[in-house]
Amino acid sequence: MGRGDDTIHYDVRGDLTAATAERPVLIMVGSPMDATGFGSLAARFADRPVVTVDPRGAGRNPVGTSALSPDVHGQDLHRVIEDLGIGPVDIFASSGAAINALALAAARPDDIRKLVAHEPPIADPLPDHEAYLAVCQDIKVIYEASGTGPAMAKFIAYVMHQGPTPDDYLDRPTPEPTQFGLPTHDNGDRTDPLMRNIPTCQAYRPDYDALAALGDRVVLAYGIESGEESPARGARAVAERIGRAAVDFPSHHAGFLGGEFGQQGDPEAFAERLRIVFA
């Protein structure tokens, strides 16, 4: 769909004409994760059409180096829905895509029947948002200077952190890439879709009033094993800001994965929970 930098690839599973008002098309999207991460989860929704999406700058789409805002990603989701001609839809959006889908829901509420925003790594509603964004900015600086290995090492260490970000977090020793099996050599590439959008993604400020007006059509979700990791805290904080209770899901941030990218969640239990929430 689209041309040049505006190209967005998506895959359709099942017959779009089989969608009903009670069981509409289900869009699954991640960011920076592409559509290949939804194989295990999508296979468990054979009773309805499922569309999996590569977000702009990832997967089969053109790459780049400039940051992409959630508003741009949200507009891309709207374009997919328009291209399919099947709205309103249900959306399961995880990680950065949860923030993108919140942007879509606020801007174009008629596109969605229900949105499950799973573990958005968002800083704005958190009390430690300034320290959080400082860490994200530091990771981006490291990426620009030294490449993927050193930046990902710092990113992984941070996403494992439990609880609010201490003000002195950046004073702590920087982890070595080899601790996580990451390369130390800088290959010069700067198109990594995760690093491309740090901290633009985390710094996004949703339209809380518009989201609150959607009531139970917007569901914030977190993994029961995620504890106080920042994406789970973000889900609960956004839910509180819009007057809703966040919903717990099985497993962790990658709870819907069934071995994709070497990560194992509990896709069977995750799908069952998602089915209940979409009912």
From TrEMBL:
<feature type="domain" description="AB hydrolase-1">
    <location>
        <begin position="47"/>
        <end position="125"/>
    </location>
</feature>
<dbReference type="Pfam" id="PF00561">
    <property type="entry name" value="Abhydrolase_1"/>
</dbReference>
<dbReference type="GO" id="GO:0003824">
    <property type="term" value="F:catalytic activity"/>
</dbReference>
<dbReference type="InterPro" id="IPR029058">
    <property type="entry name" value="AB_hydrolase_fold"/>
</dbReference>
<protein>
    <submittedName>
        <fullName>Pimeloyl-ACP methyl ester carboxylesterase</fullName>
    </submittedName>
</protein>
<dbReference type="InterPro" id="IPR000073">
    <property type="entry name" value="AB_hydrolase_1"/>
</dbReference>
